Amino acid sequence: PRLHPIAPLLSGSGLFYLLALSNNSVRLFEMTRTSIGELDLGETPRSSDELERDRDHQAHLQHSAQSRGGGVANFHGHGGDNRVGEMETERFFRAVSDGLDKVLNSTSPGPIVLASVAEHHSTFKSITGREVLDDIVAGNPDTKPAGELYKQARPIAKARVVSRNEQLLDQLKALLGTGKASDQIARVALAAQEGRVDTLVLAGLPTQPDGQADLVEDPVDEIIVDVLRNSGSIAVAEENGAPQVRAIYRY
């Protein structure tokens, strides 16, 4: 199978998650360079009110059990001050973060673009262990359809990809000539077979006449297979005039 044409999908660099978050609603989307799709959040509470109702129900059950057993129950009222509201928001965001961990699992590489009011960004970012980008889709996201969220989030994701690629290319160029990187395809192919490639850097995607992509042998396909087989990573960092295949070595 041809892998070179779908290298961006293999790299993970174009994969982001968009989290539309407020106290009244939470939606999670998977976002690529060309599409957006909503993900099922499973048992994650969909609002702060839903979480508090569940907590109140559990507290009622606990109180009933303690009353039957002669114990003393502690009650935590819902006061109207700002701190109580902040605590409820923090509890909800923590539950959302826990839900993300279950849905995405710890190996999902994509960072999160947050769609929320500005004050919720720092709160959620301090709670979750996942990477949340600094730039946000600002404003209440509750009534925004997926297409509108995608249109606003895509430039944020694109800027992140560009920044990461620039850092990667700087690292690669600094290592060329040291034995820890190469821009010679034959050497990269051998290193990939030996499991020495940490990151395979492709300068772009192959251009083939329509309908002929599967008929043309591409040595890059085999290199990609070897890199992935040995748990290396793939990056597509377009750069005019650069060699098609470069790599950073593990050793």
Name the structural class.
alpha/beta
Q: What is the alpha-carbon Rg in Å?
A: 24 Å
Q: Which second-level CATH architecture of the largest domain applies?
A: 2-Layer Sandwich
**Mean pLDDT score:** 86
Q: What portion of residues is helical?
A: 40-55%
CATH topology value of the largest domain: Nucleotidyltransferase, domain 5
Strand content: 15-25%
Largest sheet: 5 strands, mixed
Total of DSSP H or I helical runs spanning 4+ residues? 7
Structural notes for this entry:
α6 runs parallel beside α7. This protein has 7 helices and 9 strands; from the N terminus they run αβββααβαβαβαβαββ. It has a 5-stranded mixed beta sheet with strand order 3-2-1-4-5. A 4-stranded mixed beta sheet has the order 6-9-7-8, sandwiched between helices. It has 251 residues and is of the alpha/beta class. It has 2 domains: 148 residues, Nucleotidyltransferase, domain 5 (2-Layer Sandwich), CATH 3.30.420; 74 residues, 60s Ribosomal Protein L30, Chain: A (2-Layer Sandwich), CATH 3.30.1330. 44% of the residues lie in helices and 16% in strands. The model has no long low-confidence stretch (mean pLDDT 86). The longest helix has 30 residues. The two termini are 29 Å apart. It is elongated, with a radius of gyration of 24 Å.
Task: Offer a few descriptive terms.
single chain; 251 residues; alpha/beta; Nucleotidyltransferase, domain 5; 60s Ribosomal Protein L30, Chain: A; 2 domains; 4-stranded mixed β-sheet; 9 strands; elongated
Q: How is this fold's topology laid out?
A:
Layout: H1 7-11, E1 16-21, E2 26-31, E3 36-39, H2 48-69, H3 82-104, E4 112-116, H4 118-127, E5 137-138, H5 146-175, E6 181-182, H6 185-193, E7 197-202, H7 219-229, E8 233-236, E9 245-249
Parallel strand pairs: 1-4, 4-5, 7-8
Antiparallel strand pairs: 1-2, 2-3, 6-9, 7-9
